[in-house]
Structures are given as structure tokens and as C-alpha cells.
Model the fold of this input.
Amino acid sequence: MVGDGSYLMMSSELVTAVQEGIKLIVVLVQNHGFASIGALSESVGAPRFGTWYRYRNPDTGRLDGGVLPVDLAANAASLGVRVLRANGVEELRAALREAKAHDGPTLVHVEADPLVYAPDSQSWWDVPVAEVSELDATGEARKSYEAAKANQRPYLGKARQ
Done:
């Protein structure tokens, strides 16, 4: 199971699966952006910089223009992978059954709402936040980071001073 950002970084492996006739099932959740990195950037006070598939807006100079027409299911098909599109839970279940019955690589494509967050893992990722910024969001994120860092405990060995 991969998101579209991860897919873009590893889709060439599908060519190898096709070449070698390897049975592989990939469930691709396409939300048209780098959702986990976007959420991480929000947590460090940099609101989703460059994490949506958007055109550069000539009026603002920012990546807040129209939505890019990214179709990763079509991309997978162009690599020789069998593609099944699923809209809804029942179609997903049916697509997974069909993928299991297929001998070669199959991609099950699921469109997802980019504004619906995945469940939180309740874990903390030690990503330092800028100490100086003009953005209020970054200042608040720095305070949260410092509080979390103060509570951080090592699992193995002695804490470094």
C-alpha cells in the first residue's frame, strides 16, 4: 500500500515486476499530493509547501494554480501493469479479490480526498523546527517541538548530554 508520493519515487520497480513476471499487488491511494510530508511540514510551521500537485500560478508565483492532471493509474498501465480502479469499499474488496487471482503485477488504484487526514500514529518524529521565523505558525510549532523534545527519552543506552 503506497501513497502517490511514494509511488512516484518507486514506480520503476513495477517495470522489473512486469519484466520478471512477478506477482505483486500494489494498492495506490492517490490524494494528489505528498500528504504525509504535507502534514509534517504543517507540524513544523511551514504550511504544506510544495506538497500538492498544482501548477505554478503566474499571478502569485506560488504553487497554488490549477490541479495537475496526474493519473498514476494510467502511468502504471503504461508500464505494463494490470490496473483496477476502486471507488468505495465494495469495489476495493472486489478489486483485491481480482488482483489476488491475477498471476502478474496488479495495481489497485483508489482516489482519496486530499483534505481527509490519515489516522495519527500517536508517535513523535524528531524534526527540528526553525528557531527564527516571521510566521506565527512556525513560532508555535517551535514551542511544541521544544516541549516534545524535553519529554523525549532514549530507548537504548544512556541519554546523551
The helical segments are 4-10, 12-20, 35-43, 72-78, 89-101, 136-151.
